[in-house]
Structure of Phosphoglycerate kinase:
Amino acid sequence: MKTLKELNLKKKRVLVRCDFNVPLDEVGLITDDSRIKEVLPTIEYLLKTEAKVILMSHLDDPKGRVVEKLRLNEVQKKLSYYLKIPVAKTRDCIGKKVQESVMKMKPGELLLLENLRFHKEEEENAISFSKELSKLGDIFINEAFGVCHRSHASIVGVPSFLTSAAGFLLEKEVRVFSKALENPWRPLVVIIGGVKIDTKIKTIEKFLKTADHLLLGSKLAESILTVNGLLVGREFPEKEITSRIKKIKLTNPKIHLPTDGLMSLPSLQENYLRIGAIGTLRKEEEIFDIGPETARLFSEIIKTAKMIIWNGPVGFFEKPPFDKGTKKVAEAICKNYSAFKIAGGGETIMFLKKYGLIEKFDHVSIGGGAMLALLSGGKLPGLEALK
């Protein structure tokens, strides 16, 4: 995989795939611009080399049609604010008018293309769409780790037509996760929670071979406990996931599941809270957080780690008091000053930002799905396309 500094970029049209899929509020304003700030070093480097910089990205999922509130106008404003230069923007991402805008560019100028997903051909990985995009550049740079697990036209199609390389952010993500997979510092402690069970089972299977400890929480742990008969009266996950869970042996000393939890009613009535052993869960109750005994056990294991990978909260942290377990886990991680700390996933990052803990981690990955796919030992289409 080539990297940015290996290429001669002067006066070249450099097409950069970014991940500007930022959250918006009700009126369309950006509520978190982290994904924009992450790619600034690559953009600034390209501008200094006198490249003609063309940025492209998707925003949300407009399903192949133009949705006015999903135009990249607010992204354009943020880029101009941070870079302190004018940033031009097109009304589309392909076509004659876009090509004319690119042809008028001078070295050191920046152009932002419109939302790629206004065209259904982007997600379909249509060759015709890839060709149209590739006409806009001489060189392709992938700076969108968060969508590298997708086989979309701007991720895997365009690099088949242009000289391609990884941007600084993508290069860093690959370097960090390669270290975690191939030569981790030990003990390696992996914490996995959240509600997306299907995407995380593969990660568990992989880390059963490479990690020293696996700490599991939230709906993921609940599903494993249910399938193994340790939680009664709960709904089983879908058939394929159930089958995979059955192959995970709970007698494996690496696996650590909650032994107690904070229970409430599905309506989350705050006047009904109960801490109890997992096996005492009543029919009308739900588990919304790990209990104090589990939090203590997890914290003791985290203290021993030399490398920590965290993806997914261990409880329903959005609503106190069900954030206590995740707080305890985060506190233990942050107090382990000798460990290399990696965090990733949308909910995890949301939690870290809420409590001002981002700076306590050595690496925070903005690509949750791509992070899990890579850590599961899978090949990411976006990375393979750069080889």
Summary: The first strand starts at residue 13 and ends at 17. The radius of gyration is 23 Å. The chain is about 35% helix and 15% strand.
